[in-house]
Structures are given as C-alpha cells and as structure tokens.
Amino acid sequence: MSAIDKPENPAVAESAFLKACRREPVPHTPVWFMRQAGRSLPEYLKVREGIPMLESCMRPELVTEITLQPVRRHGVDAAIYFSDIVVPLKAIGVDLDIKPGVGPVVEQPIRSRADLERLRDLTPEDVSYVTEAIRMLTAELGATPLIGFAGAPFTLASYLVEGGPSKNHEHTKALMYGDPELWADLLDRLADITAAFLKVQIEAGASAVQLFDSWVGALAPADYRRSVMPASTKVFEAVAPYGVPRIHFGVGTGELLGLMGEAGADVVGVDWRVPLDEAVRRVGPGKALQGNLDPAVLFSSREAVEAKTREVLDAASGLEGHIFNLGHGVLPTTDPGALTRLTEYVHEQTAR
Amino acid sequence: MSAIDKPENPAVAESAFLKACRREPVPHTPVWFMRQAGRSLPEYLKVREGIPMLESCMRPELVTEITLQPVRRHGVDAAIYFSDIVVPLKAIGVDLDIKPGVGPVVEQPIRSRADLERLRDLTPEDVSYVTEAIRMLTAELGATPLIGFAGAPFTLASYLVEGGPSKNHEHTKALMYGDPELWADLLDRLADITAAFLKVQIEAGASAVQLFDSWVGALAPADYRRSVMPASTKVFEAVAPYGVPRIHFGVGTGELLGLMGEAGADVVGVDWRVPLDEAVRRVGPGKALQGNLDPAVLFSSREAVEAKTREVLDAASGLEGHIFNLGHGVLPTTDPGALTRLTEYVHEQTAR
C-alpha cells in the first residue's frame, strides 16, 4: 500500500511487474521495453502522421493511444507513459523544439547564472494534459501498471547547456568542472522540476516511475558522485513518500550502477554491456534489476534472439527481482513481430 | 632489442615512452594524445586545405608534416602515424570514401560470403606511401618514437557491414549473432590485412603500434571473447616477433579491459570512465596502462584541467608503467594551447 493515497486498481499492485519491483515471487518474469511505444510500430507512425513530436506529447487522447499500442500488440507487463525528456522544460516555457532526425534543440543554451532564471518551478497546471492522459490511461489499462517517465537532471542539463544532443558534452562538462557552484544550482533546479513532473504522474495514477539519465554514462564515478548524485537523490527522495517503485536507467553506466542504486532507485536498469550477475554485485542487495538484452540482437535470427535471451535469463536466475527489458531503447527499424515473440518467449521460459 | 632487425635510432629505445611501455623506470611520465595530429591544429587545417582525407593519407610528405606538427608544437613524447582506420581497406581496393562530416562510407556493404572475396590480402606494395612516409618521419623525429596505427578487425568489420559509421551496429551484430561462421571468416581476413598493415609500419621504422578498436565497447564481454578476441589475438601474435610494444584501445571498454589485455596487448588504453587504479585491477599485472583524462575537461579552466590531471596521476601512482593520454581522441574544437600546457604540466608533475 502506498504511503500517500492515489488512485489504483487493486489488481495492479498484484501484477508481476510490481511484484518484481518489490522483489516478491512472481508468476513469470515481467517484460516491458524501453521505447516500446514509438517508431517501431506502424500503428504509431500512422497516428503520429503530420503531428510534431512535442505536440503529440500534449494531446491526451493521442498519448493514451500511443501508450496503449505496445500493450495491445505485444502483451507486455507494463505500459510506459509516452512523453519526451524535454516535455517538462517546454512546459515551463524553455524555448525548445524537437527537430526530426536531430532531437531536442534549445534556442538559447543555458551557460550563465542569469540563464538559470529561465528555469522556473513546474506546477501541475503546466502539464494538465499529463494528468488527463494518465487518468484515461489507467482506466483503459486495467490490471496493467503504468510507469511514469522523466529525464534525470544531468541529461536535462546536457540538452540545456549544449543547446541540443551532443556526442561529447564539452560545454556541459566545461560548466560542471569550471563552475561547480553554478552547476550544482542548475542541477538542483532541474531536480525540483523533475520531481514535480513525476509527482503529477504518480498522483494521476502511475504505479512506478523511471528516471532516465540517458547521457550520464559519459561521466566517471567520482564526477557522478560529486556533481550529479545529489540532484538525482533529491528527485528520488521527493517521490519516496508515494511508495511507488523508482527505476533508474542510463546507457553505458557500468561504472555507475552502484551509485545509481545508492541515489535512491529501487530498481536499477542495466545496459547490455554488463551481465546481470555482475551487475548485481555492483548494485548490492535490496534492489531489483531491469534489463538487459542488446536491442541490436533483434535484427538477428529467431534462434539467435532466443539464445541471447536465455543468456540474460540465466544471468538473472540468482536475482531477487528481475524485470526483463532491453539494454537500451527499441531501435527504430526493429521488426515489431520480434518484440511480440520475445515477450512470449520470456513469459514461457520463466512461467512458474 | 627487437627480435627482428629494423631501423631504429638507439636513443629511441631509451625514450620515456618506450621505457614506460616496457614498465621500466622513467625520467617523467610520457605524454601523447590520441588524434594529436589533426583538426585541433590550425597548421593542420592549413596543409589539408582542399585535399580530401584519404588522399592526404597517401601523400608521404603531407603525412610526415601532419605527423610532426603536434610533436613540434606540444613537445609530446611520441608521434602517431597520421592515417585513417580505413586506409588498408582502400589500399586493397574496397570501394569506400571518407565523407566530410559523416566518416567512412562503403559503397557496397559486406553481408554475404561472396562479399568476402572483395577482401584480398594486403601487400607492402599496396601501401608503399606508408613505407616512404615512415622512413622520412623517423629521420625527422630523431629520438622521438613513432607509433604505428591500425583499426582492429571488429571496428573495420562494423564499417564494412554497416556501410558507414553506425550508432547501434545493427547489421554488424545481426551478422555476428546470426552467421557466426561467416563472421569469424570476415574477422580472420581483416586480422590478416591489419597485421600486414602494421608489419609494413614496423619494418619501415615504427617503434610501437596501437590497435584501435573504436567501436568494440558496443559488445558485452561474452560476445567479445567469442566473436572478436580470436581475430585481435591473431593481429597481436603476428607482430609479436618484432618485439615492439603493442597498445590496444577502445572507447567505452570498461568491461573488456581484461580481455583486451589478454588478447595480446602490452599496453592497455583506458577511457576516462574507469579510474586507472580500478583499470589495473581489471587488466592484471604485466601490462602498462595508457590514459585517461576526459578530453572534454580541456574545455574547462586551467585550474580544472590541472585538478583533473592530478586525479589521473594520483590514480596512476601505483602503476608499473603509465603513459599519459586522453581517455579518447582530442576533440576537434580543443584549444591547442591547452594541450601544450597539459603536456608541460604532466612533465613537471612527474619529473623524477
């Protein structure tokens, strides 16, 4: 039972996904896929036709439809709220857009103390479409849990400081190393915005949250601990009173898994580079793990997919709580049929 | 003394760089930078003006000038032969080009057994400009050692199979997982080509070699061991009789460091994500380490650069052999002055 009351179908709490998050025995290993809603599905491309990405995140009916599509098609054990990492920034008035083939582009990057003023607090009214969409979604989803979604402070900071996607994060790191005080204030402000955004989702009915720190794998552990962990911890602490499982994931974070757990995650997501039996040693006891089939494996034969999936399940066999997922988002040209078969295969192989 | 005779200035063997590779006491920690020759230097941009990348790799005078530029400017302890990973493939007739802003593009990707026929053996005559350039270079370099350069089989395979640079290596992995026999044959052929290319460089006067496996960090350890290590090992064994130090580097390879050493490297390059004191635990005894300042740190203040450099030197203080380098290539917009100051700083701080 959650510490703060929120709407919930009682069957949701008994779902395999939430049981695995709580490290309780499960009828089968639950499965969902990062980016399961999106470009790999023809029905997604159809409903998105002519609608820019950011606009699609602000239309409750469309968000509901897109979020439900992979649940209907694949029979996955959880839905993930369809949104984009920059939605809360857009909602507080940051001048940004998502350019097709590029990603989020910020008109005026944030690089000085004066720029911080542009990051005001986020209120539920700023994202009323989120509340509306989640109420519709939970009504439709029945016993299937909905995972709330937000980008973590470091990744948001990288977009804001670079002005767009970046391979090397030069400006971000220059600020982080060169002006640690301004950096800390920037991340603290982003932590508040992120926490507020997740709270809206939980209060509307999300049963878990995933904090994505897409780019944090660009940092060494000492820098993560010093310059990022305080802000990520603040986000996790802010949502702790709701008692919903908190998932934390970033790609290329093999060196950071222990610290990302320490920051306050109940479930640590692992990319495909670190076998789960090694990941559990790094994360330590008391946390569930999520992952970690290489999404590129899905471009191979059915036999190869099953063999690699068995490797993941074998490495996970000693875990207290395991949520099966890819080790990164579904790649855009993935055959959706391969995802459906993978879901069935994991369910079959792990049925108790 | 090398097991096979090759031209060498006797002072080269006593250089700080080669001593560190051999894990012998050094007068100071030697320094060089991956991509030290190239886009960060105005004198490079000047001599390259109007000359396409691949063509510039085939003009001995130009290669000599470009390779010498960073040695002159920064006073680094080693030169690295200016080339590109795809040069040996071009030399055997693969239809490829380096497109500005994109990277190597292969006209017809390799995806079937019949395609393998296009990868014939490389002979010294195919790359006579390399022999010529290295002879000129070693004459100019005096006591400064020259490092030979080649891309490793996995990274070459990725370019050939994808047809160009790739973020997710889907086609490469589909082949690797889906047709292990064809994959092994492809990598074996690339190992022979790479070994032949390195032999040419050593015989012309290179005092060490670095095998770059730029993309191999995309693999989990079990896949590396099964599908890549045999080919990389073949390359290292082929050049072993020359007795020159063999350096091996890939970015994002924290999980692979031990295996990359095992493949036959004398020096393991480490990116900035893994502190050197942790890297030495993964690599084990009997190998030197190279690295590992985050190249993005150079966009920060001088104080920040020095503080982060001290962290690297402190983490390296227990190593038997340490070659200071960045944890990845010099970023194109790096201030060259920052690299000169960094070289001086490491020399000062480590002078014995």
Fold blueprint:
Two copies of one chain form a homodimer.
Chain A: H1 10-13, H2 16-21, H3 42-48, H4 53-57, H5 60-74, E1 79-80, H6 87-91, E2 96-99, E3 103-106, H7 113-116, H8 128-141, E4 146-151, H9 153-162, H10 170-178, H11 180-204, E5 208-212, H12 221-227, H13 229-239, E6 246-249, H14 257-262, E7 267-269, H15 276-283, E8 288-293, H16 302-315, E9 322-326, H17 336-350
Parallel strand pairs in A: 1-4, 4-5, 5-6, 6-7, 7-8, 8-9
Antiparallel strand pairs in A: 2-3
Helix pairs in contact in A: 3-5, 5-8, 8-11, 9-10, 9-11, 10-11, 11-13, 16-17
How would you portray this structure in words?
Two copies of one chain form a homodimer. Chain A is built from 17 helices and nine strands. With 352 residues, chain A is of the alpha/beta class. Chain A has a single domain (10-350), classed as TIM Barrel (Alpha-Beta Barrel). In chain A, the strands form two sheets. Chain A has a seven-stranded parallel sheet with strand order 1-4-5-6-7-8-9. Chain A has a two-stranded antiparallel ribbon with strand order 2-3. Chain A binds chain B through residues 168-174, 177-178, 217-222, 252, 254-255, 272-275, 294-297, 299-301, 304, 307-308, 311, 331, 333, and chain B through 168-174, 177-178, 217-222, 252, 254-255, 272-275, 294-297, 299-301, 304, 307-308, 311, 331, 333.
